[in-house]
Amino acid sequence: MQVVLESIEADITTLALDAIVNAANESLSGGGGVDGAIHRAAGPGLMDECRALPMIRPYVRCPTGEAVLTGGHGLPARYVIHAVGPVWYGGSKGEPTLLGSCYRRSLDLARKHGLASIAFPAISCGVFGYPLDKAVAIAVTEARQAAEDPGSLSRIVFCCFGQKALQAYRDALVA
Ligand code: AR6
Fold first, then answer.
1. What Cα–Cα distance (Å) separates residue 12 from each residue in 24, 33, 119?
2. 100-126: per-residue pLDDT in tens?
3. How far apart are CA 25 and CA 76, in angstroms?
4. Which ligand 1 atom sits nearest the alpha carbon of residue 33?
5. What is the extent of the structural domain holding 94?
């Protein structure tokens, strides 16, 4: 089946898809930005589920570049995939590899759980400071890669907060 890749401008917490992706931190302890919005909309059950996940080292439940899946709790989405993007330090600290890994791990989890639709925020492009255009290129490359071997996937949505992000994804998706 053909996978549809699309960009929309929306609050990701409103999307009734199989999974939405959270731009989380390694401790999965909540935060600001999209992480805060997702936890507020999902309700306390999401934090309870995150806190019950084992720490693989102090303060780390999900290392940078990895992703884990939880239920959606009070969200319209069935699942939340928590992906931890890299902090941008200028690009020479492995940031592109780590960001690409976030998208791959998230898409792998979606396929492993037989999910059809998934929405991504612009991981790392808020407080983590990743330049939008560079991050968008990686996101679209990884989504196109997954579309070559889609498994259960039929729809990959890039959910943008604001016109600037929407335009960046639109440009990348037609390139
Ligand atoms: N829906 C869609 N996109 C959103 C929403 C929303 N409701 N809210 C923000 N964005 P950020 P990061 C966009 O800072 O850079 C947290 O504290 C936002 O405009 O949420 O990966 C975590 O706990 C931006 O384009 O995530 C981590 O500590 C994008 O989502 C840290 O921030 C990502 O911005 C992660 O930083």
1. 14, 11, 7
2. 999 999 999 999 999 999 999 999 999
3. 22
4. 20
5. 4-174
CA nearest ligand 1 atom 20, residue: 33
pTM of the entire predicted model? 0.98
Q: How far apart are CA 64 and CA 85, in angstroms?
A: 6
Q: How far is CA 153 from the centre of its chain?
A: 15
AA letter at 142: E
Secondary structure class of 42 (helix, strand, coil): helix
At residue 58, the pLDDT reads 96
| CATH code of the domain in which 119 resides | 3.40.220.10
Measured from CB, residues less than 6 Å from any atom of ligand 1 are 11-13, 23-25, 31-35, 37, 85, 121-128, 159, 161, 165
For 9-19, how does the pLDDT look when each residue is reduced to its tens digit (9 = 90+)?
999 999 999 99
Catalytic residue annotation: 35
Q: Using 50, 70 and 90 to split pLDDT, how confident is the model at 175?
A: confident
Q: How far apart are CA 160 and CA 168, in angstroms?
A: 9
Note the pLDDT tens digit of each residue in 39-89.
999 999 999 999 999 999 999 999 999 999 999 999 999 999 999 999 999
The count of domains in the chain is 1
Q: Looking at ligand 1, which residue's alpha carbon is closest to its atom 33?
A: 126
Q: Which of 60, 6, 65 is nearest to 28 (CA)?
A: 60
